[in-house]
């Protein structure tokens, strides 16, 4: 029942409610506020026209960005990976408490670090952030810049509506002592969306971008489920349990600039790059550097392969956190330590499960 609510009702019913609200806000702003109050009541023709034009422009920008987020930009689907070549030699990988790599049964694929399964997307997503019920879209590493841009312009739009609404409601109330109910509803809607979008924007900028962290990692940190890493130590592999404190700073480079670049990193060497370039991308409504669009279109056609994943720097543990893990190993400060020989690990990961073999046969 709960899964039906989550998988069907929320993604299908919420957008209909939101479209209704969108239409109502447009009616209240353009007709009740701009036309009836500003134009007919006060006779401010130029102000009325300017308000409607700016509102339409802001609505068009947010709609275009939503369309890009929902239909053009892939969140960063991870291509199913049945084998992890030479995994026993990699410095570290995400593992279960016994030192074996994690596996996603839905995708029939190994799950490397920072790859999470999204039930709404039906696939594993690299740096999966969250499923936004308001936008009905999955946010991952590849469409994150569009999500932030949309949040900024969404905030700008509601701020504009609120300012115009408050100016004229205040003006009409001081003279007539009466205010149209639609204008009060408009102010309430503005307050709600501004708090939501502004709060999300602040938490994303300060917390998630500032510490190279994602929403899903934040939620997982609060759950009793432990995070384990299989770490190479000489000729053995040891399982290191990552405690909550280290968990929230696992990818934090301790430099805002570097974290920012990690978050807005797109594909290998193609990225938004400097802070100035990302800020320009976010603040200029229809400015979309060719590499952003190109990356997204490319993403839609093919999922992130393990080679592309391995080349990404934003899925790797930061040097600072790696140093802490090494220290734990040196001090043998492992809350739960399962030591596994490399040979055994290789044997285990080389075994093909029947379902994997079936899948391969079907592909051929
Ligand atoms: Zn999956």
From TrEMBL:
Top-level taxon in the UniProt lineage: Eukaryota
Residues annotated as domain Palmitoyltransferase DHHC: 102-221
InterPro entries to which the protein is assigned, alphabetical: Palmitoyltrfase_DHHC, PFA4/ZDH16/20/ERF2-like
Protein name listed in UniProt: Palmitoyltransferase
EC numbers for this chain: 2.3.1.225
Its membrane topology: Multi-pass membrane protein
Entry's family note: Belongs to the DHHC palmitoyltransferase family. PFA5 subfamily.
Organism: Babjeviella inositovora NRRL Y-12698
UniProt KW Repeat keyword: no
GO MF annotation, one: protein-cysteine S-palmitoyltransferase activity
Taxonomic placement: Eukaryota, Fungi, Dikarya, Ascomycota, Saccharomycotina
Main location: membrane
Catalytic activity: L-cysteinyl-[protein] + hexadecanoyl-CoA = S-hexadecanoyl-L-cysteinyl-[protein] + CoA
């Amino acid at each position: 029942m709960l899964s039906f609510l989550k998988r069907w009702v929320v993604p299908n019913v919420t957008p209909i409610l939101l479209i209704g609200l969108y239409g109502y806000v447009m009616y209240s702003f353009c007709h009740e506020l701009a036309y009836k109050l500003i134009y007919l009541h006060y006779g401010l023709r130029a102000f009325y026209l300017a308000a409607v034009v700016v509102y339409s422009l802001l609505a068009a920008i947010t709609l275009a960005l939503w369309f890009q987020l929902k239909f053009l930009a892939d969140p960063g689907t991870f291509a199913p990976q049945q084998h992890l070549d030479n995994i026993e030699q990699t410095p570290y990988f995400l593992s279960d408490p016994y030192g074996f790599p994690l596996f996603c049964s839905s995708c029939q694929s190994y799950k490397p670090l920072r790859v999470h399964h999204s039930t709404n997307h039906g696939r594993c997503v690299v740096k999966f952030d969250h499923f936004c019920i308001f936008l009905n879209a999955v946010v991952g590493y590849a469409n994150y810049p569009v999500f932030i841009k949309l949040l900024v312009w969404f905030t700008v739009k509601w701020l504009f509506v609120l300012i115009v609404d408050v100016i004229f409601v205040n003006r009409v109330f001081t003279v007539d002592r009466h205010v149209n109910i639609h204008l009060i509803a408009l102010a309430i809607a503005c307050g709600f969306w501004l708090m939501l979008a502004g709060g999300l924007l602040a938490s994303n900028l300060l917390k998630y971008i500032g510490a190279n962290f994602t929403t899903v990692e934040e939620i997982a940190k609060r759950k009793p489920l432990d995070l384990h890493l299989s770490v190479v130590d000489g000729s053995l592999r040891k399982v290191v349990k990552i405690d909550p404190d280290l968990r929230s700073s696992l990818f934090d480079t301790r430099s805002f600039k570097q974290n920012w670049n990690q978050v807005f990193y797109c594909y290998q060497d193609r990225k938004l790059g400097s802070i100035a370039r990302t800020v320009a991308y976010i603040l200029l409504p229809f400015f979309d550097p060719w590499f952003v669009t190109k990356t997204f279109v490319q993403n839609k056609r093919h999922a992130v392969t393990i080679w592309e994943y391995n080349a990404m720097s934003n899925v790797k543990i930061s040097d600072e956190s790696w140093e802490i893990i090494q220290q734990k190993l040196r001090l043998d400060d492992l809350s739960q330590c399962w030591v596994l020989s490399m040979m055994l690990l290789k044997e285990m990961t080389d075994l093909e499960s029947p379902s994997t073999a079936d899948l391969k046969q079907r592909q051929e």
